[in-house]
Amino acid sequence: MTSTIGLFAHVDAGKTTFAEQLLFHTNHIHQPGRVDHQNTYLDHHTVERERGITVFSEQALMETDKSMYQLIDTPGHVDFSAEMERMVHVIDYGIIIVSAVEGIQGHTETVWQLLREHDKPVFFYINKMDREGADKEAVMQEIEKDFAGSIFDAMKFFQSDCLDDDLKEKIAEKDDFLLEQYLEGNSDEKLWRARVAAMVQSRTLFPCFCGSALQGIGIDHVIKALDEWAGKTWDNSRQFIGTVYKIRHDKDGHKLTFIKALQGQMSVREQLNGEKVNELRIYDGQNFSSVDKVEAGQLFAVAGSSTLSIGDTAGEGKKSATYTMVPTMRVKVEYGKEESDRDMLQLFELLDAEDPSLQVEWDNELKEIHLHILGVIQLEVLKQLVFERFNKLIDFTPPEILYKETIKFPVMGYGHFEPLRHYAEVHLQLKPAERGNGVTFENRCHVDDLPLNYQRLVEQHVFERAHTGILTGAVLADIHIILINGRAHEKHTSGGDFREATYRAIRQGLEQAEKLLLEPYYEVKIKVPSHLIGRVIADIEKANGLFDAPVTEGEKAILTGKVPVSTFRDYPITFASFTKGKGSLQLRYAGYYECHNPIEVMEKLAYDKNQDPIYRSSSVFCAKGESYSVPWHEAKEHMHANTEKATH
């Protein structure tokens, strides 16, 4: 029986130290390492040891008398939350480490939301009980109020063979069957413990432990709890299915594809997504062992697989997982003139395979590499990483906010491309979609109007790139594109014609539409002493944020709302300064909303829609052997296909 345990925390809560103690207490390592000594088992990359933070999610094997566990230590810094989120998809249980002094911090809330959304059972460990200012009861109350109303002191559960009445009463409140047993005085320990295990596994109950990871206090209780509550059964009888959660490259540049086996078995020399499996590896920290077979529940790496990417389903097609930790800023990579553009792009494409949130792009017109980021610490780490791995000196331009564009109301777009010996015509309806939906496609075109193979070409061209708007040249989002009609020529339609017609139809529709510029927002939750809430409200108003009425809890005031990333990304520094550590600020990506200063942004970006090298709003027609251009506002009248096709 194998279970995967994920460790999560806000940076500096003691997560990596906790991981060391788990490995030490299960006799996997002879001595627990320390972050400040730069000798931890899982933070073995130079950049991690020098900075004292976890950047890469790494795994270790941990065995008790009862079970085998795969332990994953995840990053706690918000700049690497995309890496953390990818691990949420493959863990079976999560342990959230919370500081007994600082309590719940910003990243902790993000972690909790993700684990809840993915329905993962969670244990809490209140760390640093040996520090001055530690307050276990206050932190437990905070967890119970903000996160899990069903937490219980699990230390009491393992301190004796019999559960005390107070603990039974608290547990029974969450289960009608146990409440009935409690009222009847049923003290069958075996029944109670089995029921509690089921409640933990179903997220009805959330165990809470406390101690000091540095001193190894409370670790044995956590291990006992894992053995009692973290059971997981797997089906090895069905066809193999897994999910890709990590890509790495070894020192020779060979690709390693890390997969969580969800069902079935996989052996060396079998086919996996069309490729022969030549080697299967089980990783434990930096070390690995080659095996002949893996089975459901295991984490393993396939050496050399080229077709699979992070989020793909291994074993059946290429379905991809979706992630919510979305970068909100973009930078340009700067490097010396002596460096080859192609070599640098290949380098960053390799990094992009390992971290798809980078969304590396090559701007062919400007001859620039762009990538997306979550924060400035990520840039510092990338710079160091590129030097260490590839011996290249790079820098980045200051981060710019990633804007998006959409439309307010439905509109028809027409594109015609007919230079001599070419022909394609496309009629598209563009409709606004719900926020966060990106670009979607629907086909309502009849084969009598346009053959099926050309209809599929139109769909292909809709999705082959991230299309851009005409306000700032930002990526289009939240638009539903419907193919209504089209035309092809029996002799003259050739490769690329429908790409031109599709792009022109999209752009012609945007010219007519009422357009919206969107910007990323944070969800904010701020807790400060009551006398500081006026300052916080003023700051959020100044940042063009929206907020609910503050709520008072004793001497503290809590404010929630949302605020543009552009005006608030540097606020944590200001906040720490005026609160002097007496408040908490939680920021979480909230999605895209209408831009608060569109005119200012458009003026700053100065995008010229008429100089875009990829898009044209006009259409091209042909008469008497001569091609001519028709501007977008006249294009509809020149179309050859019926422009009155129903769009409802």
Sequence stretches where pLDDT stays below 50 over 5 or more residues:
none
From the 3D structure, determine the CATH topology of the largest domain: Rossmann fold
**Share of helix, binned:** 25-40%
The proportion of residues in beta strands is 25-35%
Output the strand order for the largest sheet.
Answer: 2-3-1-4-5-7-6
Structural class: alpha+beta
Mean pLDDT: 92
Broad CATH class of the largest domain? Alpha Beta
* CATH architectural grouping of the largest domain: 3-Layer(aba) Sandwich
Q: CATH homologous superfamily of the largest domain - what is it?
A: P-loop containing nucleotide triphosphate hydrolases
Number of strands: 35
Distance between the termini: 54 Å
State the helix count.
19
What can be said about the biggest beta sheet? Answer: 7 strands, mixed
Q: State the assembly state of the protein chains.
A: single chain
Q: What is the number of domains? A: 5
General shape: globular
Provide the gyration radius in Å: 28 Å
Please explain how this structure is put together.
With 648 residues, this protein is an alpha+beta fold. It has five domains: 2-229, P-loop containing nucleotide triphosphate hydrolases (Rossmann fold), CATH 3.40.50; 242-314, Elongation Factor Tu (Ef-tu), domain 3, CATH 2.40.30; 329-401, 2-Layer Sandwich (Alpha-Beta Plaits); 405-513 and 618-638, Ribosomal Protein S5, domain 2 (2-Layer Sandwich), CATH 3.30.230; 517-600, Alpha-Beta Plaits (2-Layer Sandwich), CATH 3.30.70.240. Helices cover 28% and strands 30% of the residues. The protein contains 19 helices and 35 strands. Helix 7 packs antiparallel against helix 8 and helix 13 crosses helix 14 (497-512). The longest helix has 16 residues, at 497-512. The two termini are 54 Å apart. 41% of the residues are buried. The model has no long low-confidence stretch (mean pLDDT 92).
